[in-house]
Amino acid sequence: MRYALAALLVSLLMVAGCGSNQYEKNIEGKNAQLEKDNSELKKQIESVRSQNVMLEKQVQTLAELSPETRIEGLYELKTVKLTKYTDFYDKDKNGTKEKLIVYIQPMDSKGDIIKAAGQAEVELWDLSAGEQGALLHTWQVSADELKEMWFSTIAGASYRLVYDINEIVTSFDKPYTVKMSFTDYVSGKVFADQFVIKP
After folding, report:
1. Of residues 5 and 52, which shows the higher confidence score?
2. Full-prediction pTM beyond 0.85?
3. What residues contact 178, with CB distance under 8 A and at least 6 apart?
């Protein structure tokens, strides 16, 4: 009986010891996780502080500039023209010109081509048809549409607008006039140009 009681006490002590070891391991694991979380939070706080400093500098810079200065700093649109590449094209090479491709080129005060923000209107005219039939078609191009039409090559950059003219132009043995107006979204100015497509 004495031996049984002693064995029972030893067993209980061993179980208690194992439980204690497991408890200590759990505490150590939780402490390590808390330290890791704490380190991550410190990094996030530092990142937010850095962003706040940058935003404060940005607000200060903008507050010191007048709206006119900010607008002028973007660009100064001087002219918007139709390029010589504006023409009718036979896209599928079947002998029939079915597309009108219009190239609009915005330029700043130094003569550099710029991707100016704005909306455009394009008109196709047959000036030989008299007043009643002179305007053949009008196309409106929103600012969102226009910015997707920017086109760059070795020869230069411009907005490239492509239109179907199957039902509009049936004869190509006479000149047609393309008229364009461009509303600049920075200055509000409206620029106009026209180009004659010769037969």
Report:
1. 52
2. no
3. 82, 86, 100, 102, 122, 123, 124, 125, 194, 195, 196, 197
